[in-house]
Amino acid sequence: MTISERINQDIVIAMKARDEHRLGTLRMVKSALKNKEIDKRAALDDQEAMAVLNTLIKQRKDSIEQFSKGGRQELADKEAAEIGMIEAYLPKAAGADEIASVVREVIAEMGSPTMKDMGAVMKNAMAKFAASGSRVDGKLVSETVKSLLAN
After folding, report:
1. Residue 16 to residues 9, 24, 56, 89, Cα–Cα distance (Å)
2. Which pairs from 19-24 meet CB under 8 Å and 24+ separation?
3. Measured between alpha carbons, how far is 75 from 58 in angstroms, rounded to an integer?
4. I need a labelling partner for 9 at 20 to 30 A (CA). Which of 2, 60, 101, 106 fits?
5. Pick from 6, 1, 2: which is nearest to 85 by CA?
6. Domain ranges in the chain?
7. Which CATH architecture has domain 96-150?
């Protein structure tokens, strides 16, 4: 079952359960997927759907940061709940230990890169994560690369 099909199925379940917050979030996700489909003029495969969901999660994280700075904790909590709902449709995100091990592996393969080679290390690390199908936060990978190259 594709991500879009699962979302459609869960929208029906949320309607029957009268879960307004979940229903609103799922409708927003469905709308974003449909917009991407219209832009592409073809059906989305799961990789493209996951890219859209990752974009939505990134937007929510930015919103949480802004709401927290503005003292609107109730809105930040709402966005965090939406992130949890969206993440349910994605593969499990790689943890900090897994990210560090892949970055170390990339650095070992490249010889002894310096901070000037950070872009190349990032590119290779992100390619490894994409090839394995695991989901990562680029910001976390960037911080890991910086810390390992600085040592």
Report:
1. 11, 13, 25, 20
2. 21/78, 21/81, 22/85
3. 16
4. 60
5. 6
6. 3-87, 96-150
7. Orthogonal Bundle (1.10)
pTM, two decimal places: 0.74
Does residue 86 surpass a pLDDT of 90?
yes
**Torsional sign, CA 88, 17, 10, 82:** negative
Q: What percent of the chain has pLDDT over 70?
A: 100
DSSP β-bridge partners for residue 93? 135
Q: What pLDDT score was predicted for residue 118?
A: 87
Residue (of 89, 146, 151, 150) closest to 122 by Cα position: 146
Task: Please tell me which residue, 28 or 93, carries the higher pLDDT value.
Answer: 28
85, amino acid identity: M
Residue 133 has a pLDDT of 73
